[in-house]
Amino acid sequence: MPDGTHAPSLTAETVPPDAPDEVRDLAARGAGPRVPCFDATVGVTLPPQSWTGTPRNRLVLIGDSLSHGFQSGAVFNTDLSYGAIIAYELGWLDGFRYPRYPGLGGLPINLELLMRDLESQVGSAISLWELPLALFRARQFMDDVEDYWERGPGAVPPTATGINHNLGMYGWDLRDALDWTAELLEQQVTTPKDDLLQQVVEHNSERAALRVYPRGDTERTLSVFQAAARLGEDRDDDTDDGIETLIVFLGANNALRTVTDLTVRWSGPGYDSLTGKGQYTIWRPEHFRSELGHVVDAVRGIRARHVIWCTVPHVTIAPIARGIGGKVQPGSRYFPYYARPWVTDQAFNAGRDVHITGDEARAVDYAIDVFNTDIEGVVRTERSGGAPGGTVRDWYLLDIAGMLDRLAARRYINDVNARPSWWTPYPLPPTLQALQPPVDSRFLSGDGHGGRDQGGLFSLDGVHPTTVGYGLIAQEMIRIMESAGVAFRHPNGQPRTGPVLVDFDRLVLRDTLVRFPPQIVDSTLSTLGWADEHLGWVLRALKSHF
User: Fold this and answer.
1) Where are the domains of the chain?
2) Mind listing the pLDDT tens digit for each residue in 33-64?
3) Which of 227, 246, 443, 497 is deepest in the core (most CB within 10 A)?
4) Which of 395, 479, 488, 499 is nearest to 49 (CA)?
């Protein structure tokens, strides 16, 4: 597939005048969405590979919250991250090292646990006379979480037995992964205050990261890339690399705050520093390209047989930002405004409700398209050997952006006119097809009777997958790994025959959101709207850490 090709637009595309030149150029040409590349080899065939032995470290992940296992506002069930699901299907889960967050729903705040706690106290609806009790209970829950992680058992990270194989960390962008070390993280964690009003775990990001990063005497100054390089050197005499498959899944946080904060601030001076980048919500393509180059250099230094690079999802599809009203015109992908998911079309007020415009959403998507064209180009270059005489690397592309586009309910599935020529619906596995109602990309909500009314692919934070959603990502990774010659075994150690299929029956049993989502206040959306009004400090804390 040609590098960076775009489907033709069905509508006149406009973006704000402050958008970067590359973004405005795409709009001026009337470019449609980037055509995904679903060929993991990006059209470059490598000569047959000859491997010896099996590397000690069969799977290593470098990524952000989507690799960490973040869900419903917290990192908690890390044994159900897509990496852990892959390790289970490899028959290697016992050998897969990952951080754990066992206390009170994890960090920073588990929305599912909070809602179920409220539901146990006041039932499935909060009446006017029960409102004081609900507020008191929610604040008590937050106080318990704060005490556990700041002063209780969670305040001291456990002693690591080795470098984690899952080196994903929520909130991390490209620069975070390049620069943070355990030593720097420890310097950020100061003595916490027991604040009765701002009951949010102080330095929750750093506290969570200290359970990810290696902290041994010789490891405290390692970045996650350097830690992975150590794993790459951990090899037997009969193996050429210490890592069999390395997955690099970074970049979402270079654009995600446009929808979690609902503001678009293009990167500028300081974008490439830990202290300066926080003022921006999306990186200019040239800035992302520069940061990506540093990441590529770091990955080249890791001894891994196979490397899978993931594209950046279109963050405007995530249901944390809901399109208001109808599409701007027939055939368009975009709504006039994007606001909080609990804000109804009838109640929306552009002068009062925080939002971004359809033109801003289009500009964000165009920027992500350029990000992904660059990531695709990296894989193509490295598989081709780069410069003449360069090293040919067994790198692959997983186009997560294209996968999510094929699952986008309001953008494409429910709007035939908006579908680009390349678009086809994503085929869900039979176990998920059998669920009623079918799982989709809309915001999860209960039906008021113990079941699910809609959604099922995104958790309660509207950004991160449910357990079955992580299973879909794992399945796509596994297909690429199989094509690379990775051998999978059953959990009992027996060799597999035929294509490896994720055990979705197992995942559905573990997915409490899909099976029986919280019913409080008639639907999840009503609950979150109530929380935003009465407990706004909770959601403000979450927005800055997605």
Assistant:
1) 6-543
2) 999 999 999 999 998 888 888 999 999 999 99
3) 246
4) 395
